[in-house]
Amino acid sequence: KMKLAVLTSGGDSAGMNAVVRAVVKGGILKGCETWIVREGYEGLVRGNSEAHHVKNFVPTLAGHVVTDADPSLIHNLRFGDGELLRDGTGDHQSGRSLKGRYIVRVGWDDVRGWFAEGGTLIGTARSKAFRTPEGRLAAAYNLIKEGIDALAVCGGDGSLTGADVFRSEWPKLIADLRAQGKITEDQAAKHGHLRIVGLVGSIDNDMSMTDLTIGAPTALHRICEAIDNINSTAASHSRAFVLEVMGRHCGWLALLAGVSAGADFIFIPERPPHGDPWEDEMCEAIQRVATFHLSLEHRAMGKRKTIVIVAEGAHDASLQPIRADYVKDVLTERLGLDTRVTTLGHTQRGGRPCAFDRIMPTLQGLEAVNALLEATPETPSFMIGMCENKITRVPLMEAVAMTRAVADAISAKDFTTAMSLRDPEFCE
Ligand code: F6P
């Protein structure tokens, strides 16, 4: 029986809870024992303090102990820890607390309704400790202590790289733990292979080899609504607005927000403005209502609002950051526009997932369980993605390497390569 744990890591994104729910429920349906790890890799490193070491988790059905999840009875299952995680601290009714416990056995009811919740209910962190060999040794020990042999990680490229490092180091970690006498010969033999799978949780849609990342559709929807709101006040006052949206190395949110809600000019990291100086290019584009009216000012043509979107990672061709406040000054001074800045910040990241950020993570979570069940020491770690509306498995490290290549191309000012490494058709 595979013992499977799921964790969320890095920046949260809408849909992460749907991943956890799908992995837990999918795992149970396939006969696995299911666990969650709180606070990402940090929780793996901290593990469960001995005082709280729970060995006596007993799934029950109407008072009768059940050993395996019987799919025909699943809707009736009431695992002992149901509701344990709902408020992140434990189930007050049963008096059990999660204090000192980061790796927690969960059942069907623990994740009930999670597809509709924003953020990640099991917590996330950017763990410094897990980046050290000592941290990873502690993490391996904590997993083995609970008998867990499979791990699903939902996070961005940094988190998925961490997963791959962990897996490739695993044989050495086992050998070290055995040498230190922390695990028995039996445990070492039983845990010779760690099964790992990655799911991409990132609002930026910045991972290569998948069409979408979990949380990106919701964030885009949030931005779209914000622009709709701003449009009405902007038009009322005949104002310009500069909107800063998230996206460190990736302009997907900024670009698609422009397509779905309208914008006069967009700054993204992969393609800085060509104009030299770019201020001229922007001002000219904003004034151009239609090519045959080039000479006329846009306000004179009856246009009552101007929207400029700046991705937070935007810069000019020499990699100097382009800041929303500076864009505002240019619009005010050069075009005489009454301009305001709105930074959407974390309103883009939090809140309830849209329908697609429930559907895609559900399908991907189920596929993640299949990938873990089929994993062998020879197969690479997979990342679950989506390509042309189909759920896919791609080699995790290939996807991470391609994603890194975009950031590297941007740093090298090779914007043609950066653009072509993103979806080439879309970039055109
Ligand atoms: O990667 C997701 C993201 O939201 C980026 O767009 C943003 O730069 C970053 O995380 C901000 O992260 P935090 O506020 O958690 O430091």
From TrEMBL:
Substrate binds at S202, I203, D204, R239, M246, G247, R248, E312, R340, H346, T347, Q348, R349. Its cofactor is Mg(2+). The keyword Metal-binding applies. It catalyses: beta-D-fructose 6-phosphate + ATP = beta-D-fructose 1,6-bisphosphate + ADP + H(+). One of its GO terms (molecular function) is 6-phosphofructokinase activity. The keyword Lyase does not apply. The active site is at D204. Its EC number is 2.7.1.11. Residues 1-428 are annotated as: N-terminal catalytic PFK domain 1. It comes from the Eukaryota. Pathway: Carbohydrate degradation; glycolysis; D-glyceraldehyde 3-phosphate and glycerone phosphate from D-glucose: step 3/4. ATP binds at G11, R126, S127, G156, D157, G158, S159. GO terms for cellular component: 6-phosphofructokinase complex; mitochondrion. Belongs to the phosphofructokinase type A (PFKA) family. ATP-dependent PFK group I subfamily. Eukaryotic two domain clade "E" sub-subfamily. Belongs to the phosphofructokinase type A (PFKA) family. ATP-dependent PFK group I subfamily. Eukaryotic two domain clade 'E' sub-subfamily. Homotetramer. Catalyzes the phosphorylation of D-fructose 6-phosphate to fructose 1,6-bisphosphate by ATP, the first committing step of glycolysis. This is ATP-dependent 6-phosphofructokinase. It comes from Piloderma croceum (strain F 1598). The chain holds residues 6 to 433 of 821 of the full protein.
